[in-house]
Design goal:
The complex is a heterodimer. By secondary structure, chain A is of the alpha/beta class. In chain A, 39% of the residues lie in helices and 26% in strands. The longest helix of chain A is centred in the C-terminal third of the chain and has 16 residues. The model of chain A has no long low-confidence stretch (mean pLDDT 91). Chain B has a domain of 194 residues. Chain B is 72% helix and 3% strand. Chain B is built from 11 helices and 2 strands, in the order ααααββααααααα. In chain B, strand 1 and strand 2 form a beta hairpin. In chain B, helix 1 packs parallel to helix 5 and helix 10 crosses helix 11. The chains are: A alpha/beta, B mainly alpha. Chains A and B meet through helix 2 and helix 3 of A and helix 6 and helix 7 of B.
């Protein structure tokens, strides 16, 4: 479904990603792990079109999307839930969700998506007419993911949903993602919370200094010596 | 002084303020969504007035269709100017956007004014009252029907516009862009289209304002300066980029002007408005209803 080949990317003259190749198949739950500054967020931003790749190929469902702008890529069925969410703080939860389905003209379809995300996050249904800017941290994350789902994407990119959340909420947000994946949404997740992520996802990539250092099934990576040493034993 | 005098002042001010509110709404919208301080806004008012004039004199249109045509002319001109100037500027200018666009709009204002001068000369072009007669509001005061109708047009237009911003997906997209550009692109909103639409709508509002006041204020090339100043007063008073506040602000400025006419005489209205503005900025720099202004500091 998603294929990234020999991607080079960065900001202005600062190259962050060197020759990164990853792929995500239909229905998979894949994680990108790695220390701060490794370039995880940059990968997601480049795939989503927020920044333009310097070189390399990005293909979504066989179609090249490298170099398209973010709104065009979104219309091809990819939703990006960034770390800072970029919610419309001055609008209600309901309006934020409606905007998530911006490109969709079919009213029934919008209604269906709305019902779906509100059943996934009942908390948002309670907060429906509240301004997004007044939500708590956990609710904001839910709204970010829910808004991303409103367009019925074939692929969801989620950047550090656990950031800034209390441990209990981290669990519930990550479990919500797992639930979504079981319902057929393909997900590429960036996370710092290595232990929990490896237990939830199918496959993972470990990114270090802008390059893919390790890849494999999450179960295998849990047993990997380097992962245990660098991310599990000391990191947690 | 009598209570009825105060009432008269209030009514005069409110009627006057409706059009200021309509102008200020467009100004606030363009600032909020595109971060442009549009100093050519008065020129679209002027174009609206001329278009209404020619629609009536040359094509024999009735007032309401003429005002609609004036609005459409503003809309089309807005598209042309946005696509022709601001779109290409946006692709080249990342830094100093606020200053660059400010200078561009000042230049535009000169160009449009002088083009109007070359095309139509310095003659005042007006029309007879759209709707004849006066309405007796209190025994001591009658107001021309045109004033009242132009106020109603302003109110209806603003109400329709408010509904458009709240209830339609495109309206929501405009608000989304003004609040969070990155978020807007991430839900699939094409910023370029929204910018063009916003600018065109803003010019349309100014065109409607100019058209509906034609029988009261005649069309001439420099006529845009006064409504521009008044609408800037409104926008600064309530807070830059505050769309709904511009309606209240418009009425406040209208009443202030009417009061200074009444108590101090003609010519003092700008002094009074500016003093009030200075006081507001001294004690509440973000404006009466102002909240945070998007991106001015970053760009």
């Amino acid at each position: 479904m998603l294929e990234v080949k020999n991607l080079q990317a960065g900001y202005d003259y600062l190259q962050v990603l060197w020759d990164v190749s990853i792929h995500v198949s239909q229905g998979e739950f894949v994680a990108l792990l790695g220390p701060n500054g490794a370039g995880k967020t940059t990968i997601l931003r480049t795939i989503a079109g927020v920044i333009t790749p310097m070189a390399g190929k990005v293909r979504l469902n066989g179609e090249s999307i490298g170099g398209l702008s973010a709104h065009q890529i979104h219309r091809k069925g990819l939703s990006f839930v960034p770390e800072d969410l970029n919610l419309f703080a001055g609008m209600t939860v309901h309006e934020n969700l409606l905007l998530g389905a911006y490109g969709i003209r079919d009213k029934n379809k919008v209604k269906e998506s709305l019902d779906l995300v509100l059943s996934l996050f009942p908390r948002l249904a309670e907060r429906r007419n509240q301004l997004a800017g007044t939500l708590s941290g956990g609710e904001r994350k839910m709204l970010g993911v829910a808004r991303g789902l409103m367009s019925g994407p074939s692929l969801l990119l989620v950047d550090e949903p656990s950031l800034g959340l209390a441990p209990l909420l981290v669990m519930s947000v990550l479990e919500a993602l797992q639930e979504l994946n079981r319902n057929g949404v393909t997900i590429l997740l960036v996370e710092q919370n290595v232990n929990m992520t490896l237990h939830l996802t199918d496959r993972s990539y470990v990114l270090e200094q802008g390059r893919i250092a390790l890849e494999g099934t999450s179960a295998a990576l849990l047993e990997n010596e380097h992962v245990q040493e660098a991310y599990l034993a000391l990191g947690e | 002084m009598a209570f009825t005098d105060l009432f008269d002042v209030l009514i005069t001010g409110i009627l006057r303020g409706g059009i200021y509110a309509l102008m200020a709404l467009g100004l606030a919208l363009v600032f909020g969504v595109m971060n442009i301080s549009n100093f050519a806004h008065g020129e679209f008012y002027m174009i609206g007035a001329y278009v209404a004039f020619f629609a009536i004199k040359a094509f024999g249109l009735d007032p309401i269709p003429a005002i609609v045509v004036a609005g459409l002319a503003g809309f089309v001109m807005g598209i042309v100017i946005e696509k022709g100037i601001f779109y290409s500027l946006r692709r080249r200018s990342k830094e100093e956007w606020v200053m660059n666009t400010f200078l561009v709009t000042v230049g535009l204002s000169f160009i449009i004014q002088n083009m109007a001068f070359i095309l139509w000369g310095a003659t005042y072009r007006g029309t007879d009252a759209y709707w004849k007669g006066t309405i007796q509001i209190t025994p001591g005061m009658g107001v021309s029907v045109d004033r009242v109708v132009s106020f109603l047009i302003a109110i209806v237009t603003m109400a329709a516009f408010w509904l458009f911003l709240r209830r339609t997906q495109t309206g929501r997209a405009i608000r989304a862009v003004s609040q969070e550009e990155r978020g807007a692109t991430l839900v699939g909103i094409n910023l370029n289209n929204i910018h063009t639409l916003t600018f065109a709508l803003s010019c349309m509002l100014a065109g409607v304002a100019g058209g509906s006041l034609l029988s009261i204020t005649q069309a001439y090339p420099a006529m845009g300066a006064k409504p521009l100043l008044a609408s800037w007063l409104v926008v600064i008073m309530v807070g830059l980029g505050n769309v709904s506040g511009s309606i209240i602000g418009g009425l406040i400025v209208g009443v202030l002007e009417a009061a200074s006419y009444y108590f101090l005489g003609a010519g003092w209205q700008n002094v009074v408005s500016l003093i009030v503005l200075i006081l507001i900025l001294l004690f509440k720099p973000s404006g009466l209803l102002g909240t945070e202004v998007k991106g001015v500091l970053e760009r």
